[in-house]
Design a protein that fits this description.
Residues 1-18 form the signal peptide. Helices cover 19% and strands 28% of the residues. The protein has a nine-stranded antiparallel β-sheet with strand order 5-6-7-8-9-10-16-15-12. It has an eight-stranded antiparallel β-sheet with strand order 1-2-3-4-17-14-13-11. An eight-stranded parallel β-sheet has the order 29-28-27-24-20-19-18-30. The chain is globular. The structure holds ligand MIG. Ligand MIG binds next to loops.
């Protein structure tokens, strides 16, 4: 009887049977212990430690039996975890300069508020349960809150609210919008729309974690894992951008990629021979289809063995690389992690790996062998630093051949002929890395970070082999922080309209999860796209971070020309536009490398009110702050649709004319000329009606933008000729950024770059452009700036450096154009009405 009463009491106190059974018979009075950087709360055997890493980032750890889990992480580097700030103690918790943290020691409930007492995040009535090694954490999910992030998880919408997910990296061939789990585990999500602003939570647990965003209980956010550390970070905003930036402070920024990563990339499973690769390259050039990369999928190898080459099909790899380089095209080659188990055959990766004891073991101490593409295969133990070093050396011959980038596929890891599609859970990994204790770990613990450590080995290896080149690595599986090593793509999607839409959600959520560089197979991997689907996919991919056309074996060809000249012409027009926009893309890459802002964003990232816009925004996204891309929300439908343009005013990207929200059928009407425009925010949002047309994709430019563009090139390897184009779209907080460097080396880390902020202001006589002083010492390709002022009426001229430059006015386009010398120093150029 007494026993039952005790359980009831414990449950009422917010604990659970399992978590409290082990409670020692010592002092069990719940209490708060103040620390310099936070608090530790003790309730029976359970301890809750809240540490302020910064004024906006808290780390929360729970020890269920007196001892905290090992303080080590694959996601958050040691020096970041060690950061802490002094806090101000309060009876019920503490505060930082930005946050107020309250903890109830009887229930372990925590509430985090901003300085004004608004709730950022509050625990639910039962904040913590343990069941054996498993645990559940619960927080309140207010009605107004939306959930984003978690990488490229599926689901019917961008918003993850109402859904539940499992993190378990899975080879999900032909996945649908209902498939879960898929390839990656990024246990980080963002709550948007609550009273205290946006916040993020990273559950740094590599086990098979799960997340329930109001699926089981509408007002509860629950997450947990079957084992592993109870260790999460709570990141305050209040803006979504601040949350994402702080998340990338924690888990790392994606390094600046080589510029060619932004070029058009042509792939297929597989181009079967060097001749076929040459034909594809020749066709791209004959069709004047700008392109930078051709991909080599597994058939370039000898018997599917990684780090080999089929010498019948590819007799002279350096020769192929050289010839393609002449066309401005680079090669990316696949290098899967499964190494053929081929003892005594002279297969170097197997031999050297065996000599180094580099492969994952069975519990009985033998090497784990399982079938994948090469047949029986062994699997590098990437959680050992020495094994990663060994793996990195395998790239030496390919690097010597001049292969530019590498593709890490199948690294969930995928295993054939087993219902689990992966290794047995008791397979033994060795950890000898970072500040982890040297120990073994079961596959259950390592599974979700295996692919990430594979890419880490690849990235670090390439840094050593080519110290002055930026690595380009593309991965299928990863974990939180994996953006430090590789770009990613969404795996084996299908050729359907539904998946085109899903891909937009996936890429946006990847960007919010630290992975700014992401791709979906354009056209879809399985099935084969219709001409219309492939064309629409090209149009949308034009404005996404990484643009790779890829298709499965046994599907119809999906290169840009396969559907005849009309479709080819539309696809080319869009890809050409991407190449013109390269200076803008590249400035976004610089911004991402420094701050963590995604390249492709949800509209609410820069325009928070868009979270509650009345339009169906399920396909809308922004590319940086300046461009808003608005594909049809039902991408296959001819139905007219509304686009909600956030307050502030917008221009039509294609016509350059200001948008009048009252216009119908997408016929953009100018509303204000620059002379009428003010520097005030246009207060109301606009609704524009668009009627889908296959050759058109609505794109809008924020009023208050300066957009850099360049003359068309066929490859990023080609130096543009002519002036850098500067399009000025007057409006509030008008700015733009130039960024340039050599596009491929590490020199940008030592002054070999150019960064310049431009601002514009509408004046009584016209428009003034202020060039800030340039940072860095890189000498750009352009000598002149071809400036176009949009929203301009009447004649005009420009004043630059005390000189008067005649302008060319176009009354239909409402522009004033003029060309001035490059402005490397702080300077003002003024467009003046005449
Ligand atoms: O088992 O390398 O997702 O992009 O073309 C399939 C062949 C292995 C899966 C990748 C896909 C690639 C394919 N790979």
């Amino acid at each position: 009887m007494r026993f039952v009463a005790a359980i009831v009491l414990l449950l009422a106190a917010g604990g659970s049977l399992a978590s409290t059974v082990a409670a020692p018979a010592v002092d069990t009075t719940p209490r708060i212990e103040h620390r310099r950087d936070g608090v530790e709360v003790h309730r029976g055997a359970v301890s809750l430690r809240v540490t302020a890493l910064t004024d906006h980032v808290l780390r929360v750890r729970i020890a269920r039996d007196g001892a905290f889990a090992e303080d080590a992480s694959w996601a958050v580097p040691a020096q970041v975890r060690r950061a802490h700030v002094a806090v101000e103690a309060a009876a019920d918790g503490f505060s930082t300069t930005a946050l107020r943290v309250r903890v109830d020691p009887r229930t372990l409930r925590m509430r985090v508020e901003d300085g004004q007492g608004r709730t950022i995040s509050a625990d639910a009535a039962r904040p913590f349960d343990a069941d054996g090694r498993a645990f559940t954490l619960r927080k309140q999910l207010p009605q107004a809150e939306h959930i984003f992030g978690l990488g490229d998880k599926t689901g019917g919408s961008l918003d993850r609210r109402g859904q539940s997910y499992v993190d378990w990296n899975t080879d999900a061939y032909g996945f649908s919008s209902a498939t879960d789990p898929i390839y990656k585990s990024i246990p980080f999500f963002i709550g948007v729309g609550g009273t205290g602003g946006s916040y993020g939570i990273l559950l740094d647990n590599t086990w098979r974690s799960w997340f329930d965003f109001g699926h089981r209980e509408a007002d509860t956010l629950a997450f947990g894992a079957p084992d592993g550390p109870i260790d999460y970070y709570l990141i305050a905003g209040p803006s979504t951008a601040e949350v994402v930036r702080r998340y990338t402070d924690l888990t790392g920024k994606a390094p600046l990629p080589p510029k060619w990563a932004f070029g058009y990339q042509q792939s297929r499973y597989s181009y079967m021979s060097a001749d076929e690769v040459r034909q594809v390259a020749a066709r791209l050039r004959a069709d004047k289809f700008p392109a930078d990369v051709i991909w080599l999928d597994i058939d370039f190898q000898d018997r599917n063995r990684p780090f080999t080459i089929n010498r019948q099909a590819f007799p002279d790899m350096p020769g192929l690389v050289r010839d393609l380089r002449g066309e401005g095209i680079k090669l990316v080659a696949i290098t899967d992690l499964h190494i053929a188990s081929a003892p005594g055959e002279g297969y170097a990766p197997y031999d050297s790996g065996t000599a180094a004891d580099a492969f994952v073991h069975n519990p009985d101490g033998s090497v784990y062998v399982a079938p994948v593409w090469p047949g029986p295969s062994v699997f590098p133990d990437f959680t050992e630093a020495s094994v990663r070093d060994w793996w990195g050396t395998l790239y030496r011959p390919f690097v010597a051949d001049g292969i530019a980038g590498f593709w890490n596929d199948m690294n969930e890891p995928a295993v054939f002929d087993t219902p689990t599609k992966t290794m047995p859970l008791d397979t033994v990994h060795r950890i000898a890395s970072d500040d982890f204790a040297r120990r073994t770990a079961s596959h259950t613990e390592i599974h979700n970070v295996y692919g990430m450590q594979n890419t880490r080995a690849t990235y670090d290896g390439l840094r050593k082999l080519r110290p002055d080149e930026r690595p380009f690595v593309m991965t299928r599986a990863s974990y939180a922080g994996g953006q430090r090593y590789a770009v990613t793509w969404t795996g084996d999607n299908a050729s359907s309209w539904d998946q085109l839409k899903l891909s937009v959600h996936q890429l946006i959520n990847l960007g919010l999860s630290g992975f700014a560089y992401s791709a979906a197979d354009v056209g879809g991997f399985t099935g084969g796209p219709s001409a219309e689907l492939l064309t629409r996919w090209f149009e949308i991919a034009t404005f996404t971070p990484v643009f790779r056309d890829h298709a499965a074996k046994d599907t119809p060809r999906a290169e840009p020309w396969v559907d005849g000249p009309e479709h080819l012409a539309i696809r080319r027009r869009f890809v050409e536009e991407r190449y013109r926009l390269l200076p803008y893309f590249y400035a976004l890459a610089d911004e991402n490398a420094r701050l963590g802002d995604p390249v492709m964003r949800p509209v609410f990232y820069d325009y928070p009110d868009a979270i509650s816009a009345s339009c169906d925004q399920s396909m809308a996204f922004t590319l940086g702050r300046q461009l808003l891309v608005a594909p049809p929300p039902t991408p296959e439908s001819p139905q007219a649709y509304d686009v909600c343009l956030p307050a502030g005013g917008w221009y039509d990207y294609w016509t350059g004319l200001a948008v009048d929200g009252a216009s119908v059928d997408g016929a953009s009407q100018p509303i204000q000329s620059a002379s009428q425009a003010t520097n005030e925010k246009r207060s109301s949002s606009l609704v524009v009606k668009e009627t889908p047309r296959l050759d058109k994709l609505p794109v809008f430019v924020r009023a208050g933008s300066i957009l850099p563009r360049q003359p068309l090139v066929q490859s990023t390897a080609q130096t543009p000729t002519g002036a850098l184009q500067i399009d000025v779209y007057p409006g509030a907080d008008c700015r733009g950024q130039l960024y340039a460097d050599d596009g491929h080396s590490m020199a940008y880390r030592k002054q070999g770059f150019l960064r310049q902020v431009l601002r514009c202001t509408v004046t009584a006589d016209g428009v003034r452009i202020d060039f800030a002083a340039r940072e860095g010492q890189f000498k750009p390709w352009w000598k002149q700036l071809a400036v176009t002022i949009h929203g301009w009426d009447g004649a005009g001229y420009a004043m630059a450096g005390g000189h008067r430059v005649e302008g060319v006015a176009d009354s239909a386009a409402r522009t004033l154009r003029f060309t001035v010398a490059d402005q490397p120093r702080a300077a003002t150029v003024e467009a003046v009405h005449r």
